[in-house]
Specification:
heterodimer; A: 599 residues; mainly alpha; five-stranded mixed β-sheet; 25 helices; 5 strands; 4% strand; B: 61 residues
């Protein structure tokens, strides 16, 4: 209940504050859906920078976050009242029962995707990367009242949207944080419709459906990952680019918003294509008069893309911190073997056009078909900006990798990193094509309507299955402990540690997901090497190091000590380590928990 | 009123009909490939889920 109330209050404040910002910037008003979605994303960007500032100052407390929200709330009162007044006056009956039969079907399917995502968002977090770092880092930030340099946790990888998770967790716990991510995805859906409407009138509903029925969106909706926030920033920046002729502020915003996409996930650097596009178009229009705007745009882009790097530089002396055993452009120590091989490049693009592992990460077939259809039938008839940006993002991504990190050019990782750009630019382009085809009865129309609807069916089925499993926990019929105990192999061991009466418990966590641990911990990353154990050769050295660092317990998940396997075989089986619990894992293996006896 | 006339002409144009046929055939082939991969991926997913939840079965008395 606290999570829901916090979320609803934040929803109103974010939308109202974003509207206030657009009024202060003197931006001309647009359609309501566009204003609501764009306001949300704009507020998210400002709050990200605000909470990050608090985190750098080590001033992240529930009180400081509450104060920030109160300030935003006071600024949002008037605009929020206006927006909700407009919402009330909308012709809801006509919106919810459109005249066109296909639009009615699309609306029902959109509702089902969103309902599945909402149920997932209300259930406790189970995403793999969430437990590794997307929620672990915000939790560590809250525990330490700010950012702390650590070489055992990927806290030096830029993750701008983590600040929104910090805000949500501080006010309403993990479910509020999840709901904020869900709302960000909703804003992306609204922005996709808004962009499409500006490219071709009447394509909004199809664009919303196209976005939601991609494996990328269907897979991640309701989860706590970063792909959908990146997608929403890309679409907001695209919208700003489309409105750039209305005033120079839009160009500055396009650059700032694409910077926020990059700082959310640096591997989404393909979103950077929006910057040369926005600046080039503005300078072509304005000539030398636009130089000041170009400088302001680049400055905002540098700030919004690089704020995390500035903190890295201040704390580690490097803009991009290199973790032990991990480097860009070379295979990670202990990680999966990668490239080079052109088969890998084909697989990367193939995954993007079909499906990645676990039916996520791809742009889905309709976007690829829509782009091809656009090129074949509409090239000389319609605005080509979306198609060109989509092509530029793919070429730019591959080009940058070829120059800076050729080994990664040949792996399957790229599908997930590229997909937000391909969906963000390709979705509206596909909607343009679908909109054009719908106006022309004939076999092509029937084929495209079928191609539009078909990919949704299995994805909806799978999403419904996941939502059904999560529903009892989402509505409070199943406890967090029971739900997560069935999903996370190390959860039971974490619960034991969390409930220990001793105040000074410190855990060496040799497992994948430390998020569920409430006690201080040192993590042994599942990729790369561990700085804690690096260079240690003997049992005595390991015991001495653990005592120096105050470790009282060791939690080991099978494979968790891959970077120092002798610890599992030669160190842990004898005193001072005492096994105090074990829980079943896959393949007849066990999660083991050890207490470190005092000397 | 200009645009529909252009389209009607285009619909009668054999080259245009050829393009539609080519596009339709490529679309059908692509969707078949997509669903073939989809089934494989879902199989992979459920296989992993079953392995993943082996620990739950072992928790049961």
């Amino acid at each position: 209940v606290i999570a829901l109330v916090s979320f609803l209050v934040l929803l109103i404040i974010f939308v109202g504050f974003g509207e206030r910002l657009t009024r202060l910037a003197g931006l001309r008003s647009g359609p309501l859906l566009e204003r609501l979605s764009f306001s949300w994303v704009l507020s998210t960007g400002v709050v990200t920078l605000g909470v990050f500032g608090l985190a750098v100052l080590r001033a992240v407390t529930r009180g400081s976050i509450l104060l920030l929200v109160v300030v935003l709330g006071l600024a949002s009162i008037g605009p929020a009242r206006d927006l909700f007044g407009e919402l009330r006056s909308l012709p809801w009956r006509a919106i919810l029962r459109p005249a066109d039969r296909l639009d009615r079907i699309l609306l029902v399917l959109i509702g089902l995707f969103l309902a599945g995502g909402l149920v997932m968002a209300l259930a406790p977090p189970t995403g793999m990367d969430t437990g590794i770092y997307h929620f672990t880092i915000p939790k560590v930030i809250l525990q330490n009242q700010g950012l702390v340099p650590r070489d055992d946790l990927w806290i030096h990888k830029s993750g701008g949207f983590y600040m929104i998770y910090v805000l949500g967790m501080a006010l309403g716990g993990e479910i509020a944080a999840k709901l904020l991510a869900f709302a960000m995805a909703l804003a992306g859906v609204g922005l996709c419709a808004s962009v499409s409407e500006r490219l071709r009138s009447g394509t909004g509903p199809a664009a919303m459906f196209i976005l939601l029925s991609t494996p990328l969106s269907a897979g991640y909706l309701g989860y706590e990952y970063l792909e959908l926030p990146v997608l929403s920033y890309v679409l907001a920046a695209f919208l700003a680019l489309l409105r750039a002729s209305e005033g120079r502020v839009w160009t500055v915003l396009a650059c700032g918003l694409s910077g926020l996409a990059l700082s959310t996930k640096p591997s989404a650097f393909a979103a950077g294509v929006l910057v040369p596009a926005a600046l080039g178009w503005m300078l072509a229009r304005e000539g030398r008069r636009g130089l000041g705007t170009a400088v302001a745009s680049l400055a905002l882009f540098a700030l919004s893309a690089g704020f995390w790097s500035l903190w890295n530089y201040g704390t580690t002396g490097a803009l991009g911190y290199r973790y032990p055993g991990m480097s860009l452009g070379a295979p990670d120590e202990g990680g999966a073997a990668i490239g080079p091989g052109y088969l890998g490049l084909i697989r990367q693009l193939g995954d993007l056009a079909t499906l990645g592992v676990y039916w996520t990460d791809s742009a889905g077939p309709l976007i690829v078909a829509g782009l091809a259809g656009f090129a074949l039938f509409l090239w000389k008839r319609e605005a080509r900006l979306a198609v060109l940006l989509c092509a530029a993002s793919v070429v730019g991504y591959l080009g940058v990798l070829a120059l800076l990190a050729p080994a990664y050019l040949f792996t399957g990782f790229g599908a997930r990193y590229l997909a937000p750009c391909v969906v963000g630019f390709g979705g509206p382009a596909a909607a343009q094509f679908v909109g054009w085809v719908r106006e022309r009865p004939g076999p092509l129309r029937s084929a495209i309507v079928l191609a539009l609807l078909l990919p949704a069916a299995p994805l909806l089925f799978l999403k419904a299955g996941k939502a059904a499993v999560a529903a009892p926990a989402a509505v409070g019929l199943e406890s967090r402990s029971s739900y997560l105990g069935k999903k996370i192999e190390t959860f039971a061991a974490c619960e034991v540690l969390n409930k220990l009466p001793e105040p000074d418990v410190k855990v060496l966590f040799a497992g994948v997901r430390p998020y569920y641990l409430d006690r201080p911990f040192i993590w042994i990353p599942y990729l790369g090497s561990s700085s804690l154990l690096q260079g240690l050769k003997t049992r005595e050295e390991v015991i001495r190091r653990l005592r120096e660092r105050g470790i009282t317990h060791v939690l080991v998940e099978p494979g968790g000590l891959h970077s120092a396997p002798f610890v599992e075989t030669d160190v842990l089986p004898a005193a001072p380590f005492r096994e105090i619990g074990r829980w079943p894992w896959k393949y007849d293996q066990w999660v083991r928990l050890y207490a470190v006896e005092p000397p | 009123m200009e645009e529909p006339r252009v389209d009607e002409e285009a619909a009668r144009d054999p080259r245009s009909r050829g393009r539609v046929l080519l596009f339709g055939a490529a679309l059908a082939a692509y969707y078949l490939l997509y669903y073939w991969i989809f089934v494989g991926r879902v199989g992979e997913y459920f296989g992993d889920i079953l392995r993943h939840f082996a620990f739950v079965r072992r928790l049961l008395p």
